[in-house]
Amino acid sequence: MFQDPSFQITVTPLQYVLSIISGILVGFSLGLIGGGGSILAIPLLLYFVGLANGIAPGTPEYSYITHLTLGTTALAVGINAYINSYMHFKRGNVRVSEGIIFTIPGIIGDIIGAYLSHLMSGALILFLFGFLMIAVAIRMWKSKCNPNKSILSNNSHKLTLRERIKIDKVIPAGFLVGFASGYFGIGGGFLVVPGLLFSTGLDMLRAVGTSLIAVGTFGVAAAITYAVYGYVDIVISLLYLVGGVAGGYAGSTIASRMPRQTLRKLFAIIIILVAIYTMYINRVGVVDLLHFL
Q1: What is the C-alpha separation between 208 and 36, in angstroms, rounded?
Q2: Sign of the C-alpha dihedral computed for residues 152, 154, 160 and 166 taken in this order
Q3: Are 179 and 220 in contact (CB under 8 A)?
Q4: Which helix (H) or strand (E) holds 33?
Q5: Alpha-carbon distance 246 to 59, whole Å?
Q6: pLDDT tens digits for range 163-210
Q7: DSSP string covering 247-268, please?
Q8: How far is Cα 47 from Cα 230, in angstroms, rounded to an integer?
Q9: What is the β-pairing status of strands 2-4 and 7-9?
Q10: What is the rounded distance in angstroms from the CA atom of residue 73 to the CA atom of residue 70?
Q11: Domain ranges of the chain
Q12: 109 Cβ partners below 8 Å, 6+ apart?
């Protein structure tokens, strides 16, 4: 049961089951195609689990459900990232120093983003989120799955921390990525990895492993900020997490047997279709955007 000064809703047993299924789908997509898969976590919770069903966009109730979804998915994504970071750490793919340095300014941006998000209407947030989904889909379509990029390059592992870190780049990059993560309630792995490559001397494999430190921290920090305003459901987050672990294992197993590039392009198309649907449902957010501007 979630309560707000203006209304209350009840999550049914069926919706809890659908939350597990949603977690499986998100985890499966992550295991199958890698970064960007979690972008579907929010629309799945809103429209598949059905937290937003029957609630008109633009109403206070809809905004409440939207913020609740952002906080809930942020917690699930954050915990899942920490679990995966441990697995990468055991394989030697995590540079803790770089991860912490990138994360510190990101936490500030993350908290600011989450705070500003709770002030915005749900329709506006989701309308803008549609643009982010399209950007992720385009990047996914254009990206090339080259396994050779996982090999250490340029002897980056031999450089000192001072030589690897570009402070003038890592601070703004970390802040901006953290802000986006907090505002939209996402882990932002698809933003963190390029940010680390841009501002540090890490190779691709270690950038992916190290990014999970930031993704986990951003997710948990955003969830805590949303929780202050009552926008987190721990039960659904845990169900998402359980489903995500199972789905991730299945996805990663199947991925080794299928053409990864074809899968990424297919998934990019799915994300674009979901983005168009999300933007259409929340088109009233355009009015809020014009008022905001």
Answers
A1: 12
A2: negative
A3: no
A4: helix 13-33
A5: 36
A6: 566 777 888 999 999 999 899 988 777 788 888 888 877 777 788 888
A7: HHHHHHHHHTTS-HHHHHHHHH
A8: 21
A9: antiparallel
A10: 5
A11: 9-292
A12: 174, 175, 176, 177, 178, 179, 180, 181, 182
